[in-house]
Design a protein that fits this description.
Shape: globular
Order of helices and strands: EHEHEHEHEHEEHHEHEHH
Number of helices: 10
Radius of gyration: 17 Å
CATH architecture: 3-Layer(aba) Sandwich
Number of domains: 1
Distance between the termini: 55 Å
CATH superfamily: NAD(P)-binding Rossmann-like Domain
Structural class: alpha/beta
Length: 250
């Protein structure tokens, strides 16, 4: 019997890279994204007869409830959906903040809480949460993003310890700058030229390293040797000042 994976934010970036990776391994896929055009392009490119494509706005509670009620319980959850939201304190609207927080934190919690009891009953399963290196370092003018990622990071670490004796592994991935369209969509396309090449990592590489850690039952992984080496220094003021400098618009 084939294994089944549920991937959110599956039409581009890390989510699509995960879909490609699992397709090669013969998984049945339930792929969720918000944008119909990108979803259709991904469907054509993936060309997988056992991949099911669905449209849903995961910043809304109703979408999460529908998924939990109507989708088959997965063997693997890849909670990847997110946005690169940027804005100084007080500049974002209430709806922008609420939607971002639910999409990248509250909604992931609701999704996992909905499926976890069923996975526990089966006695097996894996959960992968795509957080961000921003969960463990200060990100001026990206405080909403950073705090949402920090929240889901600690949730993932906590349930990893809770579920380790129930046959369910939980791995939180903390990638840095990933080569996706997320920054461009958020109006941060200047980062491609400002951030040094050695700080970028491909979505395929993120998936490769994240899956390796997940299969080993690790609770946390930081894809990319650069970010692994710099992790101990990320909380220092010097690191924050460097981040300000390389991400500043001209």
């Amino acid at each position: 019997m084939k294994s089944r994976a549920l991937i959110t934010g599956a039409s581009t970036g890390i989510g699509y890279a995960y879909a490609k990776h699992l397709s090669k391994e013969g998984w049945i896929l339930d792929l969720i994204s918000e944008n119909a055009e990108r979803s259709m392009k991904s469907k054509d490119a993936l060309n997988n007869p056992v991949a099911n494509f669905y449209l849903a706005d995961l910043s809304k509670k109703s979408s999460i409830k529908e998924i939990i009620s109507n989708y088959e319980t997965p063997d693997l959850i890849v909670a990847n959906a997110g946005i690169a939201i940027n804005g100084s304190i007080g500049k974002l609207s209430e709806s922008q903040k609420e939607d971002a927080y639910y999409l990248m934190c509250g909604g992931i919690i609701d999704l996992i809480e909905g499926f976890a009891p069923k996975m526990i009953k089966k006695g097996t399963g894996r959960i992968v949460i795509i957080s961000s290196i921003g969960a463990i370092t200060a990100m001026p003018k990206s405080s909403i993003y950073s705090s949402a990622k920090a929240g889901i990071y600690m949730y993932g670490k906590s349930i990893s310890a809770e579920l380790e004796n129930k046959g369910i592994s939980v791995t939180v991935s903390l990638p840095g700058y990933v080569e996706t369209e997320a920054h461009k969509k958020a109006g941060l396309d200047h980062l491609k030229s400002k951030v040094p090449n050695w700080m970028w990592i491909s979505a395929d590489n993120v998936v490769k390293q994240t899956e390796k850690a997940s299969k080993k039952g690790k609770s946390e992984v930081i894809p990319g040797i650069v970010y692994k080496l710099t992790k101990p220094f990320l909380k220092f003021s010097a690191a924050i000042n460097i981040w300000r400098l390389i991400t500043k618009k001209n």
